[in-house]
C-alpha cells in the first residue's frame, strides 16, 4: 500500500470515535494490530493497540505514544496508522492494563 498518497489526520481527528478499530501497519506494510482506544489529552495522548490474537481473542494491549504513529485516511476514507515498529517489537512491549 502506498501511504504517501494518503491524507494525514489533523489533531482534531484524534478521537476514539475516529481511531477505534483502525488497523496499524508496520514498516513492511504488514498489519501489526488494531487501535483499541486512546489515553490522555492533547499532545500527551497515547494509543492502545491490540496485537496478536485472532478476531480480537487473545490479543495483547500495548501502549504507544501518538508520535510513534502516522495516522491517515486512504483514498476510500478508511483511517489507519503506520509505524516504524515491527510486529515483533510491538509484541515485546509490556502489556497495558487500564
From TrEMBL:
Highest taxon, organism lineage: Bacteria
Name of a matching Pfam family: PRC
Q: Per its UniProt record, what Gene3D superfamilies does this chain match? A: PRC-barrel domain
Record domain PRC-barrel: where: 21-67
Name used for this protein in its record? PRC-barrel domain containing protein
The species this protein belongs to is Pseudotabrizicola alkalilacus
Amino acid at each position: 500500500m502506498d501511504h504517501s498518497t494518503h491524507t494525514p489526520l489533523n489533531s482534531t481527528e484524534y478521537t476514539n470515535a475516529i481511531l477505534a478499530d483502525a488497523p496499524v501497519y508496520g514498516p513492511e506494510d504488514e498489519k501489526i494490530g488494531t487501535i483499541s482506544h486512546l489515553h490522555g489529552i492533547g499532545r500527551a495522548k497515547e494509543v492502545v493497540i491490540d496485537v496478536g490474537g485472532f478476531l480480537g481473542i487473545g490479543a495483547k494491549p500495548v501502549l504507544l505514544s501518538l508520535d510513534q504513529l502516522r495516522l491517515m485516511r486512504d483514498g476510500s476514507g478508511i483511517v489507519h496508522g503506520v509505524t516504524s515498529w515491527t510486529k515483533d517489537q510491538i509484541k515485546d512491549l509490556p502489556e497495558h492494563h487500564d
